[in-house]
């Protein structure tokens, strides 16, 4: 999907990914996790896009027992190694998004090229004992 | 869905009562930020947030709350957040912010 790089469209992606996760059979708690993680990735894509970037991209990979989501932008790119885990008590306003994604999803990978953009891929597995 | 903010200063208890209804995300976070900054500038007192109708919060929303708390801490005041829904509470827990804000109920 190609999405306009504007804040008002993140809510649309949240609804879309919730519907897809529901169709696959994830339970409500997992759907909520996926929804939050994807929204964080979209927020990142919008915040780190070039001012003139009109769109970013969201792709879904539906597996037998998994849902993979790829969020890709054509922004300035971030150095993944520069993203530190938030320290308790440090009270920093930024840097929480990627930490939240890593906490909520089963697999997360980043690829990033400076000046070319960032791609975040995340996977949630459907667990059998539901 | 958007965000509705109802604020009221309780003269008797000398605290701000704020009810958040809807979602705090990249789209609505600025509105919350402006409201909280105005409140702290007007009267730097404790802020009690009723989160019982807050359906969703993300890192941008947390960032706004942290920014407001920093301003309040300069006056030795706090932010109390009441009746968070399970999904909202989870975001506070995994980010460790449940130890920074006063979460109640």
From TrEMBL, chain B:
Under the heading Pfam families, the entry gives: STAS (PF01740)
Q: Which GO terms describe its molecular function?
A: anti-sigma factor antagonist activity
The record's InterPro entries line, in alphabetical order, gives: Anti-sigma_ant, STAS_dom, STAS_dom_sf
Q: Where is the STAS domain?
A: 5-105
* Source species, domain of life: Bacteria
User: Entry's Gene3D superfamilies?
Assistant: STAS domain (3.30.750.24)
Q: Which CDD domains match?
A: STAS_anti-anti-sigma_factors
UniProt-listed NCBIfam families? ant_ant_sig
Q: What family, per the record?
A: Belongs to the anti-sigma-factor antagonist family.
Q: Which PANTHER family match?
A: ANTI-SIGMA FACTOR ANTAGONIST TM_1081-RELATED, ANTI-SIGMA FACTOR ANTAGONIST TM_1081-RELATED-RELATED
Q: What is this protein called?
A: Anti-sigma factor antagonist
């Amino acid at each position: 999907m190609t999405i306009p790089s504007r804040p008002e469209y993140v809510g649309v992606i949240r609804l879309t990914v919730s519907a897809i996760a529901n169709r696959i059979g994830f339970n409500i708690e997992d759907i909520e996790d996926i929804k939050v993680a994807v929204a964080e990735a979209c927020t990142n894509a919008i915040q780190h896009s070039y001012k003139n970037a009109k769109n970013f991209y969201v792709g879904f990979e539906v597996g037998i027992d998994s849902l993979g989501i790829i969020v890709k932008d054509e922004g300035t790119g971030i150095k993944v190694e520069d993203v530190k885990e938030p320290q308790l008590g440090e009270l920093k306003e930024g840097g929480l998004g990627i930490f939240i994604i890593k906490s909520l999803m089963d697999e997360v990978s980043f690829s990033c090229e400076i000046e070319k953009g960032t791609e975040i891929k995340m996977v949630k597995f459907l667990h059998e004992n539901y | 869905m958007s965000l509705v903010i109802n604020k009221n200063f309780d003269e008797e208890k000398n605290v701000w009562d704020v009810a958040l209804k809807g979602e705090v995300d990249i789209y609505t976070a600025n509105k919350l930020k402006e409201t909280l900054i105005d409140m702290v500038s007007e009267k730097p007192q404790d802020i009690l947030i009723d989160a019982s109708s807050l359906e969703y919060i993300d890192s941008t929303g947390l960032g706004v709350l942290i920014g407001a708390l920093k301003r309040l801490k300069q006056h030795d005041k706090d932010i109390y957040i009441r009746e968070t829904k399970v999904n909202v509470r989870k975001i506070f827990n995994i980010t460790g912010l449940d130890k920074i804000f006063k979460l109640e109920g």
